[in-house]
Design brief:
This protein has 383 residues and is of the alpha/beta class. The chain has 14 helices and twelve strands. The strands form three sheets. The protein has a seven-stranded mixed beta sheet with strand order 2-8-7-6-5-3-4, with helices on both faces. The chain has a three-stranded antiparallel beta sheet with strand order 9-12-11. The protein has a two-stranded parallel ribbon with strand order 1-10. Strand 3, helix 5 and strand 4 form a beta-alpha-beta unit. Helix 2 packs antiparallel against helix 3, helix 4 runs parallel beside helix 5 and helix 12 runs parallel beside helix 14. The radius of gyration is 21 Å and the shape is globular. The relative contact order is 0.15.
Length: 383
């Protein structure tokens, strides 16, 4: 499988989760699109782009279980989170709910919105290790109050790799009148998605991770009843358009200024290319990656003498295992420069505590995780 990617053959790349890795065939398609733009930029941007974006949105919508008209392309999930926070009105006494598993960049955006408005950030403490999904759901719901105006909840937590029971959490909070912004950065391509069934007010996800699209491909899904007050971070020509054939949401988000849209336009090609790598299509890709993640986690747990920190059902294609306390940066560098292994060592919940987080993609092999386990054991013995 590795031949379909352009990864360095000298490195065991066990960190697909951080930035993804784009197959060569998809990169070639992106380059063809860039060449098309430069042959006649005015024709492309003025006459062709709108239809191409619609085609790409339709393919993405079918994959994630959504209506294409409720999707907007953004550069990354962090941008999606920032877009929602900028559009929401908070005031003194209001509360924004997050968990202690939140991605730090998104937590920073929440802190900024709270500081600007006088709102307060409330943190739900979700245990890790964790026994079951109910513990995660109960922790989130227990932290919600009558003053909670918005909850930011990860679908797949970046530091701990936990898959949150997002649909029941959304339903329970929605019943209390609390809108949920789901940070689904890792979910598309890792987990089967049905955004209609999840029903969140807002859901943002990356296509450059597990969908394997080029960097800069992500989406923001906004429930129809929440689109009216939502604006992109950049105000451009759509704000003054007199067109009546498209929604204001569509007009504003589809054009925020001259940029390279090829990552978005390659999303259908990425879905096609990756699905073709397994006889059962993307369902089999997700199933295989999940199975490999479980195998890899078991290998690490045995080598490190620790029990699995969560049930199998609460991980997707990434898994985190606790390590002995120490410096995360030095261990990460030692694994790469001394052992040829690229893997994140995550300080969590705070230094010196740390986790090793492995990813499982089609190009990975069980032997790579055995190599990691051996390297960690040797480094621990020499510490």
């Amino acid at each position: 499988m590795r031949r379909h990617w352009t990864l360095d053959p000298a490195v065991a790349f066990l960190n697909h989760g951080s930035f993804g890795a784009c197959p060569a065939e998809v990169l070639e398609a992106q380059q063809r699109l860039r060449a098309r733009i430069e042959r006649e930029p005015v024709r492309f941007f003025s006459r062709e782009l709108e239809a191409l974006l619609a085609e790409a949105r339709a393919a993405l919508a079918a994959f994630v279980g959504a209506d294409a008209e409720d999707l907007a392309f953004v550069a990354n999930a962090t941008t999606g989170v920032a877009t929602v926070l900028a559009a929401r009105a908070f005031g003194p006494g209001d509360q924004i709910l997050v968990t202690d598993h939140a991605y730090q960049a998104c937590r920073n955006a929440v802190d900024r919105a709270a500081a600007r408005s006088g709102a307060r950030v409330v943190v739900a403490r979700v245990p890790f290790p964790i026994a079951n999904e109910a513990e995660a759901q109960d922790a989130v719901l227990a932290a919600a109050t009558s003053r909670t105006r918005l909850a930011l909840v990860d679908h797949v937590a970046s530091p701990t790799a936990l898959v949150f029971p997002i649909a029941p959490i959304v339903r329970a909070l929605d019943a209390r009148g609390i809108d949920v912004l789901v940070d689904g950065a890792h979910a598309p391509g890792m987990l089967p998605l049905d955004l209609r069934a999840i029903g969140a007010a807002y859901y943002t996800g990356n296509a450059h991770k597990w969908l394997c699209a080029p960097k800069g491909a992500a989406f923001l899904h906004v429930r129809r009843d929440r689109q009216g007050g939502l604006r992109p971070l950049v105000t451009s020509h759509g704000a003054s358009s007199t067109r009546t054939d498209r929604s204001r949401f569509r007009l504003e988000f589809d054009w925020t200024g001259t940029d390279d849209p090829t990552a978005w336009l390659c999303v259908p090609e990425a879905i096609r290319v990756v699905a073709a790598l397994a006889p059962g299509g993307f369902v089999e890709v997700m199933t295989r990656n999940h199975a490999l993640a479980l195998t890899a986690r078991a290998t690490l747990c045995r080598a490190l003498g620790v029990p699995p920190p969560c049930p199998d059902a609460m991980i997707g294609s990434i898994a985190a295992v606790p390590l002995r306390d120490g410096d995360a940066d030095s261990l990460r560098d030692a694994l790469l420069f001394d052992h040829g292994i690229e893997v994140p060592i995550v300080p969590w919940p705070a230094p010196p505590r740390r986790l090793v987080r492995i990813s499982a993609q089609l190009y990975n092999e069980p032997e790579e995780y055995q190599r990691l386990a051996g390297a960690l054991s040797r480094l621990r013995a020499g510490a």
